[in-house]
Amino acid sequence: MQFSVNKNTLLSNIQKVSKVSPSRSTMPILNSILFEVEQNKLTLRTSDIEITMSISVEVKGIEDGSIAIPSRMIFDIINELDDSDIEIKTDGDASVTVTSSHGVYKIPGRPGDEFPSVPRINLMSYVTVSNKLLSRLIQKAIIAVSKDELRPSLTGVLFQFKEGEIRATSTDGHRLVSMANKEFNNQNFERDVIIPAKFLNLLLGYISNEGEIILGVGENHIRVELDSTIIYSRLIDDKFPDYQSVIPTANPNILTTDVNHFSSALKRVGIFSNKATHQVRMTLDGEIRKISAENKEQMSSADEKIDVDYQGDNIEIGFNADYLRELLRNIESSNVLIKLKTNVNACLVLPENQDENEVLTMLLMPIRLE
After folding, report:
1. Which residues have CB under 8 Å from 287's CB, separation 6+?
2. Which burial class, exposed, middle or buried, applies to 299 when counting CB atoms under 10 A from its CB (0-12, 13-18, 19+)?
3. Are 68 and 32 in contact (CB under 8 A)?
4. What is the pLDDT of residue 124?
5. Which of 366, 369, 330, 370 is nearest to 175 (CA)?
6. Which of 189, 243, 256, 310 is most buried, with most CB under 10 Å away?
7. Dist CA 215 CA 235 (whole Å)
8. What confidence score (pLDDT) does residue 278 get?
């Protein structure tokens, strides 16, 4: 394999595909980037087995071939070179030579055929989603994804494609976010799929507010093609919880308040909360409207009145302040509605006003008061 290419062109594409490479792996070759040259096209490919990403770029091809090059080493040397053309070629012993105006650098490589192959997707179906809608669904739902690898279904977002509706839902067991758009043309594609959070975060870096994106959905994989970039991901093969059964339908106690003011109060009081639980106490009793926190280890506390409209029974309830503030950041209306039942039942956190064709539902579990 031998080709020449502009340094900055190669560097920017190495940076993109490197986002997929795992930080740690039991398969050393996954810490490499596969370089494949065919005529005047260079394809860079990375994989962590679950996700595969490839980018194609025009180069001056001299000899076709492929080789896997350690991603950190090739990035470090290319990053330090001047903005000029460089040449990369392989020798018979799978070593790589990078030649620039400064000098010659040798890097150990591995045969390209040892690198994981591109996933084969069976029974592919296609659905088109506007970039703006897909980006919005991901941004709303991604905040409640769990990092607990022992519960695989919770480490992704459940996408439900229905007639006239697309919905994205995530939960980590403590909070839940479900965002639905009721003005979606599903093109006769109806299916529920759990898409890994890592894949969705990658997409966010590529999709703009203009245009559309075509999702190719197979039996076990999803595929997206964006100009010269192709991203594959394995779908999460697990059963998502029956989230609709846990969304409360009768929470009669309703608190209404300004999102920004309430979030600021939570941030101030949360400074004095227990660093493990981040617990704040909200008291709604007669004319008392306040939130408070105490850190017994540091002998510190905070007590702050809150300006809210509250209609309901007296209640004293505990929340993780960080979780609640993250939900508040998801709200675009000026006011938030928090619907309560008791201090042990899930509460609903909702925008006071929603777009005509959207439904954003967020749920937060209280924590036991200390």
Report:
1. none
2. exposed
3. yes
4. 87
5. 366
6. 310
7. 13
8. 95
> Where do we find the tokens 């150990």?
108
Confidence at residue 342, expressed as pLDDT on a 0 to 100 scale: 95
Q: What token pair was written down for 129? A: 């989603």
Tell me how far apart the alpha carbons of residues 268 and 272 are, in angstroms, rounded to a whole number.
8
Each residue's pLDDT tens digit, 318-330: 999 999 999 999 9
Q: Domains, the chain, ranges and CATH?
A: 2-114 (3.10.150.10), 125-244 (3.10.150.10), 248-364 (3.10.150.10)
The amino acid occupying position 72 is R
Question: 133 to each of 43, 46, 56, 322, 347, how far by Cα in Å?
Answer: 30, 28, 27, 27, 27
Gyration radius (Cα) of the chain, Å: 25
Count the neighbouring beta carbons within 10 Å of the beta carbon of residue 320.
Answer: 20
Residues of the chain with pLDDT under 70: none
Other C-beta atoms within 10 Å of 41: how many? 15
Structure token digits, residue 54: 């490839």
The model's pTM is 0.92
* CA end-to-end span of the chain: 65
How far apart CA 214 and CA 176 sit, in angstroms, is: 27
d(CA 194, CA 196): 7
Instruction: Assess contact for 153 and 240: CB atoms under 8 A.
Output: yes
Kindly list the distances between the CA atom of residue 323 and the CA atoms of 229, 303, 318, 361, in Å, as whole numbers in the listed order. Answer: 35, 19, 12, 15
The pair of three-digit structure tokens given for residue 322, joined into one six-digit string: 């960080």
Paired residues of 68 in beta bridges: 34, 110
How many C-beta atoms lie closer than 10 Å to residue 262's C-beta? 22
